[in-house]
Amino acid sequence: MEKRPWPIVIIALLHFFEPQAKLLFYSWLWDVPVGRFITFMMSGKNLWGTFMFLFSFPIAGLAIFAVKRWSLPVFVTVQVLTFAQHIHDSSLSPSRFPPWMVGAFIFGNLLVTTYFLLPAVRLAYVDPRVRWWEAKPRYLVRWPVRLTQHGQTWDAVIANVAQGGFFCEFRGTVTLDTTQDLTATFAYQDFRFDLKGSIRHSRFDGGKSYYGIKFETIPSSTKKALARCMRTLDKQGFDRKPAKENPFKAFWAWGTTLVTTGKGLFPEYHAKQVQPEVAKKKVA
User: Fold this and answer.
1) Alpha carbon distance 284, 277 (integer Å)
2) Last residue of a domain, one of 115, 130, 145
3) Total number of domains in the chain
4) Vertex 205, ends 179 and 273: CA angle to 5°?
5) Residue pLDDT, tens place only, 131-144
6) Rg for the chain (alpha carbons), in Å?
7) What is 247-261 written as a DSSP string?
8) pLDDT for residue 171 is more than 70
9) Which of 130, 162, 177 is at the close of a domain?
10) Rounded distance, CA 200 to CA 179, Å?
């Protein structure tokens, strides 16, 4: 999966469209034409009420969809203000806001708030390491790379590359100093890179040595060049991980899994692993 968890996306969308749904519901419930209802809201007689009606839930939806550390405080604040607004409206006009309706709204708000405060869901908002959808795609290539460290050089092959680093392999046992930075020099078509990097992963298997390199202190111009290079790989059809998803097929698969197995209601997290991927096509 390369996108946000579907429950988060769906709940965010429901919050975005909540004002329109509420407008239609109240117009039907009170038998008031939609145009007249909108005119009353825009009259300026109750600016705070109009703000809460039109913007509170879209703001909460934006916070939900963003999945950042600030998201939950913003979301909970909106829910508290909405709770207070429901109580205020019911006290002023119990005939228009009967207890059963206010109770239903509050129950729904509490249900959604509880969902986002569950540890499995809350984790995505407080720990950026588990947000798999924020990771840049890794393109499977076979590029020669020269690594320089402590005045020594080694030739290796980049097995997969991303905007933030690459994974390379050596023939035989090559021991690099994992505590020190190195310089990586590689090229593709018109792109030439000479970048400082740190070793984040290393392993030895099957007579080969594997290292995961993260780029460090990249100048702005080089970042842009790396981004253009990744876009070029994407346009040229290089295999990538994660693979591109068709959103409709992904949604159908998620819904089917949810209905048949009960799984998918909460995000599932997996330990990040770096594998020596081998390109299936496009050898540079």
Assistant:
1) 15
2) 130
3) 2
4) 65
5) 888 888 999 999 99
6) 26
7) HHHHHHHHHHHHHHH
8) yes
9) 130
10) 9
